[in-house]
């Protein structure tokens, strides 16, 4: 169902048409997968959190969310380096949604109950590449932590 998303994202970068609906969500999910894989430990807690984020954002059933995540895993594996991939997403997704992406990334980063420097660095990098300032990224982090019942050490 998302077979052509990679070509739509990366073949004609001179025409950065907006992504919407399923394409946008799978591109966002691919960023979440990339984050979850950043520490070389992509486990069930992170997969479940990505599924929950997709279900919440799009009103999907658990089965549909899992299907979208699996598609995102394939796209993430084929996507170019993080900088190019993130810039492409930035050019094609509205600013308000980019703020939500950072909050979702923090949720995934904390999903396994561990703080990992590689994941935190990647969230900070992606936030900057998406045009999210440090203050807004920190607020998104705090919202995610509060939503997960975590406290800042």
From TrEMBL:
Alphabetical list of Gene3D superfamilies matching this protein: TerB-like
Protein name: TerB family tellurite resistance protein
Pfam families xref list: TerB
Stored CDD domains: terB_like_2
InterPro entries: DjlA_N, TerB-like
Span of domain Co-chaperone DjlA N-terminal: 26-142
